[in-house]
Amino acid sequence: MLDTVLLAVGPGDGDRSDRLAETVIEVAKPADATVVLAHVFTSSEYDDVLDRLEFDPDVDEIDPDAVAARHATIHDLEGVLDEHDVDYAIRGAVGEHGPTIVDLAASVGADRVVVGGRRRSPTGKAVFGSTAQEVLLSAPCPVTFVRHDDAA
Questions:
Q1: pLDDT tens digits for 120-150?
Q2: Buried-state track 8-47, b at ≥16 Cβ within 10 A, e below 16
């Protein structure tokens, strides 16, 4: 049974949001599953976003879910899910991308995780790490990887 699909998006996913949306709709809509749109920020990314969105930490109560909801990629995905009448929720989190996505998948009880990425050489993965690889190896449920072809 497929009840919850976690779609993890990050700072580099704006250019692949259409492919991510197509994939999550193919998986979630037939099962009438809820999609959790999750945006994970590293600490420095989160601080940058708070500055850019002009949050005042002394005045504003800052919730990562609210910050994620204001992200352009999340807005784009919301529009597509609304068009296809797919239920969704938005979650934001602060931490290292891979482990935090895995933690979110567990906390929302995800039955499937959808994550995007690009083709990398083995050396590139070793030197820079791979969020998608971390999620593929550590998620508590099956993972669908949506590859972005840099040449496209």
A1: 556 555 434 588 888 988 999 999 988 876 5
A2: bbbeebeebbebbbebbbebbbeeebbbbbbbbbeeeebe
Phi-psi region of 120 (alpha: psi -120 to 50; beta: other; left: phi over 0): beta
Give the span between the Cα atoms of 72 and 38, in whole angstroms. 13
Instruction: Specify the residue for token string 């990314």.
Output: 45
The total of other beta-carbon atoms located within 10 Å of residue 142's CB is 13
Cα-Cα-Cα-Cα torsion 95, 100, 103, 104, nearest 10 degrees, comes to 100
Residue 106: count of CB within 10 angstroms of its CB? 14
pLDDT in tens, 56-104: 767 767 889 988 998 889 999 999 999 999 999 999 999 999 999 999 9
For residue 94, the one-letter residue type is V
Longest dimension (CA), the chain: 46
Residue type, 14: G
Task: Round the CA-based radius of gyration of the chain to a whole number and report it.
Answer: 15
Report d(CA 58, CA 71) in Å as an integer. 22
